[in-house]
Design a protein that fits this description.
This protein has helices at residues 36-44, 86-102, 121-133, 149-164, 184-196, and strands spanning 6-12, 25-30, 62-67, 71-75, 106-114, 137-142, 173-175. With 197 residues, it is an alpha/beta fold. The chain has one domain: Rossmann fold, CATH 3.40.50. The two termini are 15 Å apart.
């Protein structure tokens, strides 16, 4: 898939405010500071499309981008909730859960995991929740260039092993690096195939 156009559409405070009956949606979500904005910009080839911040957890809304006039890329808030109050945390949880529980236009969610870290409880719990909600999703391991290939491979293997303790069929996964553009073609091909299916 070639990205011909990538345009910001709008931001919405909750799922019920999002337009209904629109193009297929592919949602991107991960823990705060997982490199989501960098990945979105790398995928679309638009350097400033998603705002990269030095402060984790800046995304607070459902941000919609129209890609190639055919599908929506949806940038969701992170689930790490960096430096937010309890009430704000609840608001973000309700926003995320509401989107995944009720969004009919969602084709697939890309759950981003930092490949530099060993499996974390919060990531494993979120993936488990996606399974309970029966949301179609794949895993995207990010920042594969940061700590070296060997460490990334070990952490990815450890994460998948942890999942295998409770999952009968493991989710599909991709390995990416925004710096080196690793995984870009594979992710876009996956989206392309999902649209055609």
């Amino acid at each position: 898939m070639d990205i011909q156009s990538a345009v910001f559409v709008s931001s919405y405070p909750k799922e019920s405010a999002c337009p209904k009956g629109g193009p297929p949606e592919f949602a991107f979500i991960g823990r705060s500071n997982v490199g989501k904005s960098s990945l979105i910009n790398m995928l679309t080839g638009r350097k400033g499309l998603a705002k990269v911040s030095a402060t984790p957890g800046k995304t607070r809304l459902l941000n919609f981008f129209l890609i190639n006039q055919k599908w929506h890329l949806v940038d969701l808030p992170g689930y790490g909730y960096a430096r937010v109050s309890k009430s704000e945390r609840r608001t973000l949880e309700n926003l995320i859960n509401g989107y995944f529980e009720r969004r009919a236009e969602l084709y697939c969610a890309f759950v981003l995991i930092d490949s530099n870290l060993p499996p974390t409880k919060i990531d494993l719990e979120f993936v488990h929740q996606m399974g309970l909600l029966q949301v179609p999703f794949v895993l995207v391991f990010t920042k594969a260039d940061k700590a070296g290939q060997k460490l990334a491979e070990e952490n990815i293997a450890a994460f998948m092993h942890k999942l295998s303790e409770t999952w009968e069929t493991l989710p599909h996964y991709f390995v990416t690096s925004s710096e080196r553009r690793t995984g870009r073609d594979e992710l876009l091909q996956y989206i392309d195939q999902s649209l055609k299916a």
